[in-house]
Design brief:
6-stranded mixed beta sheet; 30 strands; 729 residues; 23 helices; alpha/beta; binds iron/sulfur cluster
Length: 729
């Protein structure tokens, strides 16, 4: 195979758009509200002529703004997927909440004024704490919240509510990779290199990611990789549109990619391809890891995974023969009850072959949610303080407490993880403040989670729309969204970005930061919760200073000038850190750590009663729980509802034709959705997207078995039985 050419996108061409030129369009440079690619875009308010500045809202329910391309932004270079292109439709007043809602004594949500609604929330949370203790009040955040909001929400929980019970839906996204990162490298940043490096390496193994549907503009880096002479290996139980572009597609049984990674590493050892010099100089733990690797001989791995030995050998040859290589994982390997060990197995492969800590080589996680990276750094996790500090670290507590002006001893300890918190609702946790999440659709074992939410004494939800979870609340607070407010996000590369306000919000909504400030004041904390995002960010910088995720050198002005700054960035003179680990890892001895891991079955394997695998995921035209994208007509027209993807042979066995309803039953419940028959999936596996509520809700079926280290639920594999359902009349 030829060496990859040095052509392709340059690493950091961070050339912002000319402000004068952008202003002449009457547009504002900002970023997409959806996924972790955080594509750059321009938003122009409706009715703003070229040369005007500023924005306005449409008061007639019509279009408020339009999305324009922003070719200078280096990550997406102007490209947007349909979700990003249509994002401005959610800004229209008709598409969202514009007044607080409170539940009446007769159980109906009715519009209310802000003072009444905020008083009800403060009173509800106060009553629960008084009756059942501080830890009976929970807080649930989201991976889509800006860094400022995530920071303020964590501070609100610990300083105002003084509860340990806070976690967020990002736990369901990339927590397994986060723990594996920490174990191996001493630091968790999704990609330790700019995405542009992917196009310039020699071989990429992409594990459990369908970039063509989830982040279409990122696909160009894989296309450029192959144009540059590199090769792409995709590991996925489905032959997705991404897998179709691969030089080699490995199609293992769901839940067996840990064995697959071990099998590849076994062959690396057997074929004498271990980079002994790198292992000796830059790693630790290889000797302890080797026995587990050697126990996974190729024929055994073929039996476990279903991937033939020759394909395993081919993958090893492509990966090791390339001058540089990468492994990128996403939700496939991560959303398992052994997700952390699975990611560790792929990291072990990189370390043993010396494909880490070098230019154009390494392991990376493709974070999913819009602020999936920053949202996991600044304190809304159950065990965490800002700057990726640990809540049980006395030095971290002292540092953050000093910034917050409180006694370190007053800070609560670690709380429950996301699913465990949801499972405790109505029992140990009786009141909940929820911001930017829709667990009634997105949590595993969703019918049970919905029942737990309904059992709460008090629920307050901050959201843009009346999501399925908000519809259960006692109080719903309508908040501003992406293009209506300024704040920072951190994309999947660790690049801190500035989402600028481009239009005015409609009358009647307030920002999440305003809500937290008002609630803090009502709950007796009059200071320390500014509503101005830049002021919050200034405090976040101080709180993160010296921590693993150090933002102290990053400012709004600097982000604007450089179009993004990579953390860690310790002080104004730091250039930021686009590439990590080139000299040393963030472990105490500077070495990367191998982790001994063993394959084990999924929490549920097929059985006579439940003979098939179910795996879940996303489709191109919808995003996460669909609370936003299901309200966009073009996206709904493209993908209007749930479906069950199944192989033609399985369809014949079930007597199901295309479009006919299929009943899918797991140990948690039953769902029904139309059949979508495709040879691209394994005959022993069905796939359901998880964006919809109701009868076709995929998460009714999913298994909340948790990874012991990351507390990630096993979204990606459970056992189900299938039958043709009676057609709906
Ligand atoms: Fe938005 Fe992600 Fe689509 Fe980019 S790829 S436009 S960030 S949803």
């Amino acid at each position: 195979m030829s060496a990859p050419a040095a052509a392709g996108p340059t690493a950091d061409p961070a050339v912002p758009g000319d402000p004068a030129a952008v202003a002449s369009l009457g547009a504002v440079d900002t970023h997409c509200p959806y996924c972790a690619l955080q594509c750059g875009m321009r938003v122009r308010a409706a009715g703003v002529a070229d040369g005007d500045a500023g924005g306005r809202t449409g008061g007639d329910g019509g279009a408020v703004a339009e999305v324009l391309e922003r070719p200078e932004f280096p990550v997406n270079r102007g490209a947007l997927c349909g979700k990003g292109r249509t994002a401005a439709q959610l800004l229209a007043p008709a598409a969202r909440l514009t007044a607080p809602l409170v539940r009446d004594a007769d159980g109906v949500l009715r519009p209310a004024g802000w003072d009444e609604a905020l008083d009800r929330v403060a009173d509800g949370l106060r009553r629960v704490a008084a009756a059942h203790g501080r830890d009976a009040v929970g807080v649930f955040g989201g991976g889509g919240l800006t860094n400022e909001k995530a920071y303020a929400l964590g501070k609100f929980a610990r300083v105002v509510l003084r509860t340990s019970q806070i976690d967020y839906n990002g736990r369901f996204c990339m927590s397994s990779a986060a723990v594996a990162h920490q174990r191996a490298f001493g630091l968790d940043r999704g990609l330790p290199f700019p995405l542009a490096d992917v196009a310039r390496t020699g071989c990429v193994i992409l594990v459990g990611s369908n970039l063509a549907d989830t982040m279409p503009p990122a696909l160009r880096y894989l296309t450029e990789l192959r144009e540059n002479g590199g090769t792409l290996i995709v590991v996925d139980p489905r032959r997705t549109r991404t897998a179709e572009q691969a030089d080699l597609h490995l199609q293992p049984r769901p839940g067996t990619d840990l064995a697959l990674a071990l099998g590849l590493l076994h062959l690396v050892v057997a074929e004498g391809r271990v980079d002994q010099e790198f292992v000796a100089r830059r790693t630790s733990g290889w000797r302890e890891t080797l026995p587990g690797v050697m126990a996974h001989w190729p024929e055994l791995v073929e039996r476990i995974t279903g991937v033939p030995v020759p394909r395993l050998r081919e993958a090893v040859a492509l990966f090791c023969d390339a001058p540089a290589s990468m492994v990128l994982t996403a939700r496939g390997p991560e959303q398992q009850a052994k997700g952390t060990d699975t990611v560790s197995a792929w990291i072990n492969l990189c370390l043993a072959t010396g494909r880490s800590g070098r230019p154009l080589s390494g392991y990376g996680c493709l974070t999913g949610q819009g602020n999936g990276q920053g949202g996991r750094e600044h304190g809304q996790k159950a065990d965490q303080l800002p700057g990726y500090r640990k809540l049980d670290d006395p030095a971290a507590r002292a540092h953050v407490a000093a910034v917050w002006g409180v006694d370190p001893d007053d800070l609560p300890g670690p709380g429950r993880s996301a699913y465990e918190l949801l499972d405790a609702l109505g029992r140990d946790v009786r009141g909940l403040l929820l911001m930017g999440s829709n667990p009634v659709v997105s949590a595993p074992r969703a019918a049970h989670v919905a029942a737990r939410i309904e059992a709460l004494d008090f629920l307050a939800v901050c959201d843009v729309v009346l999501s399925e979870t908000a519809a259960l609340a006692d109080v719903v607070l309508p908040v501003t969204q992406w293009a209506e407010e300024t704040g920072t996000t951190t994309n999947l590369e660790g690049r801190v970005l500035l989402r600028r306000r481009a239009v005015d919000p409609p009358p009647g909504v307030r920002s999440d930061l305003q809500v937290l400030a008002e609630l803090a004041r009502r709950l007796g904390v009059a200071r320390g919760f500014p509503a101005d995002p830049e002021e919050v960010f200034a405090e976040l910088r101080r709180a993160s200073a010296g921590g693993p995720a150090d933002y102290s050198g990053i400012s709004y002005g600097r982000i604007a000038a450089e179009d993004g700054v990579f953390w860690p960035c310790a002080g104004p003179d730091s250039p930021g850190t686009p590439r990590l680990f080139l000299d040393r890892y963030a472990t105490p001895d500077g070495r990367a750590r191998f982790t001994p891991v063993q394959h084990r079955p999924s929490a549920e394997e097929p059985s006579p009663e439940y003979p098939y695998y179910l795996t879940t995921g996303r489709v191109l035209a919808q995003y996460q729980s669909g609370a936003q994208t299901r309200r966009v007509p073009e996206l709904n027209a493209a993908e209007p509802g749930p479906f069950v993807q199944l192989h033609p042979r399985l369809a014949v066995r079930l007597g199901v034709a295309e479009g006919e309803p299929v009943e899918v039953t797991s140990r948690r419940g039953r769902a029904v959705a139309p059949a979508r028959i495709s040879p691209s999936i394994r005959p022993d596996t069905v796939f359901m997207p998880f964006h919809w509520p109701g009868e076709g809700r995929a998460n009714t079926l999913t298994n909340p078995a948790l990874d012991p280290a990351s507390r990630m639920p096993e979204f990606k594999v459970c056992a189900v039985r299938l039958r043709r359902a009676a057609p709906t009349v």
